[in-house]
C-alpha cells in the first residue's frame, strides 16, 4: 500500500463530548477538506491558509446541507505528526455530527485508517523511531503516573538517545577493527586491553538497561501480587491503606479460569495487581487448611508475594506455612501492627525463619507507617537493588530481549579480544550487538509482522 494515500479516522472516542476530532492525513488531505468546508470568512481559501492556524466554518454535505459548525486546521508536510499534510476538523462532540463528518470524508475518497496507522506513518517517515512509537501507546495506556512519566521520557527520546550513543560507540570500535583488518601495515593496532575496555563500557550500559527493564515492565504492566497471611494479621487494612494512594483502576475480573479476583492499586507509581482480593475482603485467610491449595496456586502465579505477619503475636503454625510458601519467590515480609505496645517480633528475631534474602520490614497498616519502606523494598526486590527509581527504563519485553542479546554478544567480544582471537570474529559479535540495538529503535530492518504487531495494538485514529 502506498505510504501516503489519504487516510481518515476519529481522533477522539465516539460519544457525547465537548468536541470530536476527525483527522485526515496524506496526499490530497487539504483539497478534500477544502471541498467540504465552507469558511465563515467568505474570502478564506483553505488551500492557502498558514499551517497550524485555526479557522471557523461549516462542513457541508453533498446537497450543500450544513452538517456541523467546526474549527479546522491544516498542518502542512513535513511539519505534522505523520510528516504528510494533515487536516483536523473539530466538530461538536456527539455521535451523529462526528460520524457524519467522518462518513463524508470517506465518501469523498479518504480510506478509513488502520489501527495506529498515523503513528506508523510517523515511524516510517522517520519522525519518530520505533521505541518512541511504542511510547505513544504506553502513554495512552499508562496505568499510573510513573508509567506515564516513563512513557513520556521514552517518547522524548530517553532510551533512544542512550541506544544511539551505544551504537555510535560500537561503530567507532568496528571502524578501527575494520581498518586493522584491511590495512594491517598502515594502522597502529589498538592494544587488546584498551579495546576490551572500550567494549566493556558499552556492555555495562546495556547490562544496566537490562537490569532496569524488569522494573520498567512492572511500571507499564503492573505486578501480579498476592497478599498472604493468616486471618486478622491486617491484610484488608493494608489494602485499604494502599488504596488511599493514587486512585487505582479497579478491575474485577471474576469468572476467569483462576476465578481469583484482581484489583489494581498503585503504590508510589508502581501498579500492583493484587490477586484474590475477594479472599482478602471476605476474610478467607489464604492459609487456613481449606485455603492452602488456593494460596499455593496464587503464589505460583504471582510475581511478588507480600506476606503479612502480626508483630504483636507469637509465630504460629499458620505463619510457618506462609513462610514455607515464600521459598524461591520474590517476596517481602511485612511485620504489621508495630504500633502496638505488646510488639514481640522484630526483623532480627523473624529472620531466623527465612532464607535471609527476603526483606523484612515493619509497618503499621492502621497508622500508615512504613509505606515508603515498602515501596523501596518492592523496587529493590524487582530491580535487583541496582536500579534507581529515576533511571530511564525500558518498558517492553521486546526491548529487553534485544538488549540481552547485546549484552551476550558484547561479553563474547570482550572475551574474544582478551583471548586475541582473529579480529573478524570480534567484528561479527560487534555487528550482531549493533544490529540488536537497532531493532529496538527500528533502525535495523524488522520483519513486517513485528512492525504490524506493534501498531495493531493502537486504536484507530492514533
Ligand atoms: P485480615 O484478616 O488479615 O484482612 O486483617 P484485617 O485487616 O481485617 O485486620 C484485623 C484486625 O487488626 C482489625 O481489627 C484491624 O483494625 C487490626 N489491625 C490491622 N492492622 C493493624 C495495625 O497496624 N495496628 C493495629 N493496632 N491494628 C491493626
Short description:
By secondary structure, this protein is of the alpha/beta class.
Describe this structure in words.
The strands form two sheets. The chain has a seven-stranded mixed β-sheet with strand order 3-4-5-6-2-1-7. It starts with 6 loop residues before the first strand and ends in a 6-residue tail after the last helix. The chain contains 16 helices and 13 strands. It folds into three domains: 122 residues, Gyrase A, domain 2, CATH 3.30.1360; 149 residues, Four Helix Bundle (Hemerythrin (Met), subunit A) (Up-down Bundle), CATH 1.20.120.430; 165 residues, P-loop containing nucleotide triphosphate hydrolases (Rossmann fold, 3-Layer(aba) Sandwich), CATH 3.40.50.300. The longest helix has 30 residues. Helix content is 45%, strand content 16%. It has 462 residues and is an alpha/beta fold. Helix 4 runs antiparallel to helix 5, helix 6 runs antiparallel to helix 7 and helix 7 runs antiparallel to helix 14. The protein binds guanosine-5'-diphosphate. The site of guanosine-5'-diphosphate (GDP) has 17 residues, from helix 8.
Amino acid at each position: 500500500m502506498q505510504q501516503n494515500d489519504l487516510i481518515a479516522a476519529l481522533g477522539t472516542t465516539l460519544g457525547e463530548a465537548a468536541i470530536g476530532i476527525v483527522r485526515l492525513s496524506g496526499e490530497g488531505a487539504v483539497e478534500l477538506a477544502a471541498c467540504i468546508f465552507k469558511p465563515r470568512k467568505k474570502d478564506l481559501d483553505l488551500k492557502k491558509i498558514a499551517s497550524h492556524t485555526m479557522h471557523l466554518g461549516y462542513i457541508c454535505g453533498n446537497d450543500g446541507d450544513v452538517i456541523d459548525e467546526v474549527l479546522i486546521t491544516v498542518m502542512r508536510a513535513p511539519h505534522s505528526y505523520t510528516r504528510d499534510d494533515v487536516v483536523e476538523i473539530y466538530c461538536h462532540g456527539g455521535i451523529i455530527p462526528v460520524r457524519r463528518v467522518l462518513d463524508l470524508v470517506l465518501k469523498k475518497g479518504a480510506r478509513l485508517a488502520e489501527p495506529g496507522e498515523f503513528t506508523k506513518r510517523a515511524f516510517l517517515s522517520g519522525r519518530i523511531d520505533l521505541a518512541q512509537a511504542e511510547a505513544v501507546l504506553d502513554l495512552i495506556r499508562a496505568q499510573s503516573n510513573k508509567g506515564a512519566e516513563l512513557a513520556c521520557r521514552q517518547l522524548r527520546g530517553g532510551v533512544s538517545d542512550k541506544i544511539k550513543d551505544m551504537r555510535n560507540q560500537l561503530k567507532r570500535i568496528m571502524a578501527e577493527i575494520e581498518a586493522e583488518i584491511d590495512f594491517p601495515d598502515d594502522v597502529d593496532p589498538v592494544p587488546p586491553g584498551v579495546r576490551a575496555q572500550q567494549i566493556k563500557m558499552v556492555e555495562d550500559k546495556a547490562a544496566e538497561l537490562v537490569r532496569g527493564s524488569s522494573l520498567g515492565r512492572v511500571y507499564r504492566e503492573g505486578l501480579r501480587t498476592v497478599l498472604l497471611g493468616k486471618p486478622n494479621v491486617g491484610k484488608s487494612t493494608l489494602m485499604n491503606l494502599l488504596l488511599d494512594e493514587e486512585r487505582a483502576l479497579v478491575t474485577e475480573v471474576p469468572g476467569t479460569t483462576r476465578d481469583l479476583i484482581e484489583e489494581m492499586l498503585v503504590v508510589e507509581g508502581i501498579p500492583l495487581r493484587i490477586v484474590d482480593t475477594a479472599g482478602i475482603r471476605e476474610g478467607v485467610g489464604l492459609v487456613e487448611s481449606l485455603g492452602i491449595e488456593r494460596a499455593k496456586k496464587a503464589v505460583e502465579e504471582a510475581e511478588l508475594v507480600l506476606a503479612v505477619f502480626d508483630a504483636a503475636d507469637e509465630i504460629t503454625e499458620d505463619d510457618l506455612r506462609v513462610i514455607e510458601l515464600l521459598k524461591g519467590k520474590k517476596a517481602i515480609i511485612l511485620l504489621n501492627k508495630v504500633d502496638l505496645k505488646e510488639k514481640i517480633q522484630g526483623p532480627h528475631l523473624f529472620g531466623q525463619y527465612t532464607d535471609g534474602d527476603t526483606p523484612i520490614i515493619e509497618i503499621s497498616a492502621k497508622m500508615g507507617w512504613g509505606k515508603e519502606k515498602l515501596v523501596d523494598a518492592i523496587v529493590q526486590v524487582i530491580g535487583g537493588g541496582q536500579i534507581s527509581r529515576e533511571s530511564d527504563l525500558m518498558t517492553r519485553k521486546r526491548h529487553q530481549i534485544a538488549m540481552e542479546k547485546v549484552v551476550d554478544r558484547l561479553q563474547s567480544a570482550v572475551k574474544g579480544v582478551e583471548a586475541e582471537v582473529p579480529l573478524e570474529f570480534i567484528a561479527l559479535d560487534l555487528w550482531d550487538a549493533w544490529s540488536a540495538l537497532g531493532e529496538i529503535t527500528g533502525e535495523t530492518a524488522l520483519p513486517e509482522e513485528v512492525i504490524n504487531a506493534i501498531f495493531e495494538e493502537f486504536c484507530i485514529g492514533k
